[in-house]
Amino acid sequence: ASNHSLGSYYEANGELDKAEIYFRKALKKDPTYGGIYATLANLYMKQGRYDEALPLIEQQLTITPNSVFAHVAMARFYQEKQEYQKIFNNLLKNVA
How far apart are CA 76 and CA 66, in angstroms? Predict the structure, then answer.
């Protein structure tokens, strides 16, 4: 939890390289903690690293399929890629 908190602190202060270090430490320490995957994915999307973001979001959805945070991250990913139909399809799949 402390690595995740430190990563969030650095991210809020615009120090994205330091934030990534602590998010990765949190992930390594507890790879079953689903929340860290979308957190790191959101950081990557801020940096335009979309190819690295998608597998992280998908991993979080595997671990925590009902995570609102992960679904929002997925919608943001598709929005950034301008794949609006996929946002709609993802929402339908998970609401039905």
Answer: 17
